[in-house]
Amino acid sequence: MSVRTRQVSSPPPVLRQTTTPATMARRQTASAATATPQEANARRAELSTAGAMARARLTSGLIYDGTRPAPGTTNTNAARPVDAPLKGDPNHRTPETYNNVINQFAVAHNPRYAIRDSSGDGIKDTFCNIFVWDVTRAMGAEIPHWVDKRTGQPTTVYNYSQSRELDANATMDWLRQHGAQYGWRQVSAEEAQRLANQGHPTMVGWKNPRGIGHVAIVRPGNINERGPAIAQAGATNVNYAHVRDTFGNVPVEYWVNDRGRAASGPSPSPTPTPQPPSPTPPPATTPPTTGLPQTTLRQGDRGEAVRMLQQSLIRLGYMTEAAYNTGPGVFGPKTDAALRAFQRDAGITVDGIYGPQTRQALTQALARVQGGGSTYTVRPGDTLSQIAQRHGTTVDELVRLNNIRNPNLIYPGQELRLPARTYTVRPGDTLSQIAQRHGTTVDELVRLNNIRNPNLIYPGQELRLPPSSSAPAPAPPPAPTPAPNPGPPPSGVGGSAPIGQIPRTGNAFIDSIAADAIRNQQETGVPASVTIAQAILESGWGRSELSRQANNFFGIKGTGPAGSVTMRTREVINGRDVYVNAQFRKYHTPQESFADHARLFTQSPRYAEAMRHTHDAFRFAAEIHRAGYATDPEYTNKLHSLMRQYNLTQFDAIARR
Q: Is 0.85 topped by the overall pTM?
């Protein structure tokens, strides 16, 4: 998945330089000299204000959102470097700068990375290694595309007599042989995401023994079951995904260049050894804030406190990772809308302001989602390593949960969140036995796990446990038991057919529709994960007028059991957004909408190919889009993003039991 070029053409003549704000200001100031004195003074004042705003954006705000390549980044002669306008400073690493450096290349929309025959041999090339070259070069930590033939060192001599190009496999070899010399070191997936979130250039790669391999950039974001967040060129050009989405299950390596300095302090060492903190923290330093921010926030605010608020809204399902990555740490319209939606659902004042009332509601909501997670107050002499060992977790997990910037620095009195404990039910287990074994009560397990029938649990079911500092008693050997009878289902959008115990996600909308989606999969084969993702996308989390007025959660047009309604809707025609009035089906109940949605796929010939892939939810989603379910060109990506972010495929597994 990388480019190979046979011939390098001479660089085109430079017709003009990229115009920076400073250059433009100088030119326009010069032209002002021909105006009247009053006009010249007014123009100078205007330029001064514009320059100040530009500097503010460059240092703290969002410059690029990844939808449009920056000037100077689109050279389709991929063997030549580009001069990107935004550069990272190794002495001042921040996640905002790293995000913007990545986004300025707009990898999904940049002709430089478009799949094409670049060498005239009839074979289409991909450009994963070129994108990694461009980003790391802009960050001041170049992973080279050209190296000296004799020494393997990076070179600016771009000819085949003295130099050679690196494909993805050769890039991985270069990191192993020369990377340390240039500040690159191999890390775990967790550490890769953590360091990328501090603004350090980070990459992931796979050396393919039977091909040319693949490489990508690890970007600021969230790690999940599909791995760290990435941006990549290649067979798929995407600005935000996760490792397994594009690499699959191949063995990958993570590399980071953290020789630079994070803005919040020194970068962690490769293997941090926590030292006991001073009895009292230095007076000039504020202890790192953990959990939710303690200050009042509103639209227009920026910084770490806003980022923490955004992460909490993501965890609760009110903000997507894609929305977050348009402005990490920037309280803009998307953060405002997400916060207002949470306030509305929580039954508190809807004002878009994060204050004491909203903080309390978020704290309660997060406690429900985290399911039994507890806190620990740091004592003098404690280290993260000791705390992790004492509570059966890891330093990396404590760092992630508490947004800790420097693992070597914790303070007496600092409150740390601990991860929730879980237990997987074995054959023969009862709630009473599990409670006794883990030092808790049946009532507490019922509360933590939203169990409807305490007499009905299933082998393989994962239960959340309350916090405990002591180790659980050993489990008795499993004994065979007859298969349990189905119990009452969790409350869904409608149905009442028993489907067994369903895990709660903490997201009210997903929890309300999971039962109907699972039931439809059992009856028709349509993956529950796709059904839920479509319902989220088509109904706006159940808040759309169509779902409220017509119980239509999937935007299905025509006449339904209860007639139809006319709504204004967006269509993408010839690449343009067009708004039209259309007739949509109306249903008596939400469950009618879910059943009709499943029938649409099973009875319409256009979805026959999709129905051949019901075992692969991601392929199914792509096939229904390809068959014309939606005109939005990003429809597949949006479904995939929701399925990954909320781990919706867990419901497919439940439906197959």
A: no
